[in-house]
Design a protein that fits this description.
Elements: E1 10-13, H1 14-20, E2 28-31, H2 40-53, E3 64-70, E4 73-78, E5 84-88, H3 99-104, E6 106-107, H4 122-136
Parallel strand pairs: 3-6
Antiparallel strand pairs: 1-2, 3-4, 4-5
């Protein structure tokens, strides 16, 4: 596959993604070995379009209030001029650096479903790149 001129772009199964990143939880992944830079705004707009086309509802700029794990999904209180409760089978948490904190506040959610927060320094990224280059260079 070579969309947008990116060489080596491939969908990989869950097992391969977990081998590359043990903390990842997914059904499959998009692997881009030659680049990590994407048009994030365009990607999010495409995801929004796909989600809404398939019946999803996006609640932008909504205050997230208490949530509870229930047998049929997640009961989420949403704030605003009028508070409402929504029940969803699937919730995408896009809280950025606060995503783990927010997930920890869901009542009744098994801790096994909550990933650890991992922050990486630029120095660590440079070390990984150097290690990778050293392993792949010919003697």
């Amino acid at each position: 596959m070579q969309p947008n001129g990116v060489e080596g772009l491939a969908y990989i199964p869950r097992e391969d993604a977990e081998a590359l990143e043990p903390e990842i939880k997914c059904l499959a992944a998009l692997h881009s070995p030659s680049t990590g830079i994407i048009d994030s705004h365009g990607f999010m707009a495409a995801l929004q379009d796909d989600a809404e086309t398939h019946g999803a509802m996006i609640a932008f700029s909504s205050q997230v209030l208490p949530a509870a794990s229930i047998p049929r999904g997640l009961a989420q209180q949403i704030g605003g001029t009028e508070e409402i409760e929504i029940v969803a089978l699937c919730v995408v948490n896009c809280a950025g650096l606060r995503a783990v904190d927010l997930t920890n506040k869901v009542e009744g959610l098994a801790k096994a479903h909550i990933l650890k927060q991992r922050l990486t320094s630029q120095a660590a990224v440079r070390r990984v790149k150097l290690d990778h280059c050293n392993r792949n260079s010919s003697p």
